[in-house]
Amino acid sequence: MSFSEKMLQSLADGDIDGADLLLQQALIHDDLAILIELGEILIERGFLIEAKEVFLHLQENTKEEADLVQIYLAEIAIEEEDFETAFSLLDEIKETSEYYPKALFEMANAYQMIGFLEVSLSKLQTLLSLLPDDPTVQFAYAEIALLAERDALAQNMYELLLAAGYTEYSNVSILARLALTLANQGKFEEALAYYQEAYQQKKNVDVLLHLARLQVQLKENQSAIEYYEELLELDPSQSDPYVELADIYIQEQQPIQARDLLLRAIKENPYFVYFYLHLAEVYQQLEDFDNAQIYLEQALNLGEEEDNVLIALTKNSFYLEDYQKALDYFAGIENAYQGDLLWIVAQCYNQLEDFEQASRYYELAKEELQNNAAFLKDYVWFLRDEGRINEALLLLQNYLSQQPMHDESLHELYDELSENQW
After folding, report:
1. Beta carbons within 10 angstroms of residue 235's beta carbon
2. Alpha-carbon Rg of the chain, whole angstroms?
C-alpha cells in the first residue's frame, strides 16, 4: 500500500495528525501518478489545504504534467474563491496543451461563480467546439444557459443529452430540466408531458412541485390540488406548497379547506410566519375576525416580517371595530405609506372623532387612491360632514372628468352635493 493510500485511510479513520505525517512520506516516496490521484481525491473530499500542499510540491519539484498540476491549483483557488489566482493560473495554459479543454472548463466554472454567465457560456461554447459530444460539457452548458435565462439554448442541449440516452445526469433529471426550459418559454403542454415522464421514472418532490405549478398555469386547479396533496404527503416539511395550495382553495371558493390546510401547516412548522398571515386572511374571508386576531398576535410573537404582521393587525383590529388598538399597531409600522392602510387609519381617527388626524390621513391616502371609487365616496362624505363642500365637489368633479366609466352613484352624489340636499 502506498503512503498516499495510507494517508487517505487515516483521514477516513479521523486520524488527522497521522494523515499529515503520512502525507509528508507520500510527497517523498510516491510517484507522480499516485500523487496526482491523491490530490484529486483530496479535492473531491474537501481537503483543500492538503490537496494544495500536494500540487504545490509537484509544481516546485517536477516539470512533468505541469499544466495539469497548474489547473488543479486553479481549481483549488476557485473553491477558495481566490479568483484572481485562479484566472492567472488558467490563462497560462496554452491552446496547444492537451489539458486546454480542462482549463476552459474550470474558467467557465469560475466565471459562473462570480456571476459572469455569458462569459461562462462563451468558454463552454469554445469547449463544445473541441468536444461536441462530451455529455459533461453539454450538461454544464445547459445548466449555465438555464441560469442565464437562455432557455432555448438550454433546451437544445438537454434534448441532445436525452437523445444520447441520458434521462438523468449528475443526479439531475434531464427530463425535468427540459420541462423547465419549455415552461419558461410558455410551452406548458410540452413541459407537462416531460414532467409527467420524469415523475414516472422517479417520485420526486421538486418534480411534483413543478407539476402542480404548471397545472395552475394551465388553469387545471383540481389536478394541481392533487399534485400538491401528494407532495405534502411525501414531504410535509415543505413550506411554499401549503401557501400555494391554500391560495388555490381560495380561488376555488373552498375557504374551509384552506383554513384546515394552514392549521395543519402550523402544526408541522409553527415558526413560519406566512402560515399565520395566510390563515388570518382566510379567517377574514370567513368573517371570523376574532380567530384572525389570535393567529396574527401569535405571528407577531415570532418576530419575523413585523411590518407585514402589524399591517395585518391594524386592518383586522379595524374590522373588529377596535379603532384605538388599530392605531396602536399602526404606530409600530416602519413603512406605513400604503394607500389602503392610510385609508383605514383615517377611518379609525374619524370613528374616534379626531377629525384633524382623520383629515390628514385621508389626504395621504388620496395620493394613491384618488381613482378608487369606494375611497372617494368615503372621503367625500367625510368632507361633507366637516362642512368642506367645495373641496368635496372639486374632488368629485376631477374624478368624474377623468373616469368615463365612473360609478353612477358618484355622479348622483355630486348632484346631491351641488344641490345641497341633506
Report:
1. 13
2. 32
How much is the average pLDDT of 1-15? 90
Report the alpha-carbon distance of residue 278 to residue 384 in Å, rounded: 37
- For residue 168, the SS3 value is strand
pLDDT digits (tens, 9 = 90+) for 112-171: 999 999 999 999 999 999 999 999 999 999 999 999 999 999 999 999 999 999 999 999
**Confidence band for 410, pLDDT divided at 50, 70 and 90:** low
Residue-wise DSSP of 266-328: HHH-TT-HHHHHHHHHHHHHTT-HHHHHHHHHHHHHHTSSHHHHHHHHHHHHHHTT-HHHHHH
Query: For the residues of 56-94, what is the DSSP string, one character each?
Result: HHHHHH--TTHHHHHHHHHHHHHHTT-HHHHHHHHHTS-
User: Pick from 342, 334, 341, 386: which is nearest to 363 by CA?
Assistant: 342
Report yes or no: 93 and 69 within 8 Å, Cβ to Cβ.
Answer: no
Task: State residue 354 phi and psi, 5-degree precision.
Answer: -100, 80
Q: How many CA atoms lie within 13 A of 187 on its CB side?
A: 14
Share of the chain above pLDDT 70, in %: 95
Q: 378-405 as b/e, with b when 16 or more CB fall inside 10 Å? A: bbbebbbebeeeeebbebbeebbeeeee
Integer Cα distance of 225 and 220 in angstroms: 9
Does residue 419 surpass a pLDDT of 80? Answer: no
The C-alpha cell 488558467 sits at 90
Buried b (16+ CB within 10 A) or exposed e, 34-50: ebbbbbbbbbeeebeeb
Type of residue numbered 84: E
Question: Do 195 and 210 touch, CB atoms closer than 8 A?
Answer: yes
